[in-house]
Amino acid sequence: MVGAGLGGLALARMLHVNGIDAVVYERDSSRDARGQGGMLDLHSGTGQRALREAGLIEQFHAIARRAGQDMRLLQPDGTLLLQEDTPDDAPLERPEVDRADLRDLLLDSLPGHTVRWGCAVESADDGLLYFADGSCAPYDLLVGADGANSRVRAQLTDARPTHIGQNVVELVIPDIDRTHPDLAAMVGRGNYWVLGAGQSLAAQRNGDGCVRVGLSFYNTAEDWFATSGIPFGDPAAARARLIDLFAGWDPRFTALIAACDDTILPRSITTLPVGLTWPSTPGVTLVGDAAHLMPPVGQGANMALLDGVLLGLALAACPDGIPAAVEEYEREMFERTSAAGRQSARIKELLASPDAARHILAFFQPG
User: Where along this sequence does the record place binding of FAD (predicted)?
Assistant: First the structure.
């Protein structure tokens, strides 16, 4: 398989548990070659189900943050609309976990030779993978677990990710309890959302003591970063420009931006078409973002983990051979991820609406 993200590693784990040899080719030079991002909330019926099937649920519980389920929802003027604080004995319905810790858990559950680092796949043809260094390797089943810009996807469909009118700037406040205890208390232990008209601020407590801040700008063009006036090469000036873009918001919120360090990452948000399918093709399939890239509202990692586990289970129980197992997996995956994609798209629409805070409040508290 191609890609040592969550979906590919979950599949490799299931195949290993069932005594099936697998190799994961990953373009990164090592597991620590680049950052893995922030926190994920793993849902009991999807992501946690996958880890339970993979025999890793107890190890997951050891690294999960129950308090990460806390949520605060506010309007730009500072009005608090919703505060949910998680009791110490609350069930782990949607606990948070650091993406890097979860990836390490999966990597550590595999034999050391499973992942081949520094292998950048260029193409595939007639049962052979071709790498950037000119080498090649044979395969019986090629699984594209290589994310949004998948090289494997072209074997199955012409679909490509398209921009959805959302651009995000990600920032970090390191060691917030020591450096900014007032802001740490304001954000709390979990997720802190401030939703305005056409833009939002999300702050999230991470397991390493930092808070990651995401500034979303909705209904914006794909080239918005080039026209926004944010000087990304000058972090201090970039923070000042971002604060200007949130003029009129409660000063406590812009104080979060001012407290961030020089880590400033722009991200243009793209997705694949909701309900994307392809004719089942012998010898190749997809998992995770390569198959169903969705808006970043909490579904993607859960779907990727479950994709990998369910494909592994189908292959382990394939009395009629690999093509039948793949077809069975794809049939279930298409239905499941189409529903998740529709819900994710709906949440993105609510976040982009003029009265986003009230709409999201109604979503969380229907009736």
Answer: 41, 99, 289
Q: Is residue 319 part of a domain?
A: yes
* Binding-site residue ranges: 34, 41, 99, 289
Domain count, the chain: 2
pTM of the model: 0.94
Residue set of the binding site for FAD: 41, 99, 289
Task: Establish if 86 belongs to a structural domain.
Answer: no
Q: Which domain holds residue 190?
A: 162-271
- Give the pLDDT confidence of 269-312 residue by residue, as tens digits: 999 999 999 999 989 999 999 999 999 998 999 999 999 999 99
Q: Which residues are annotated as a binding site for NADPH?
A: 34
Picking from 317, 347, 312, the residue whose alpha carbon sits closest to that of residue 333 is 312
Segment 1-59, tens digit of pLDDT: 999 999 999 999 999 999 999 999 999 999 988 876 788 999 999 999 999 999 999 99
Q: Return the CATH number at 151.
A: 3.50.50.60
Residue 36 to residues 5, 28, 99, Cα–Cα distance (Å): 9, 12, 6
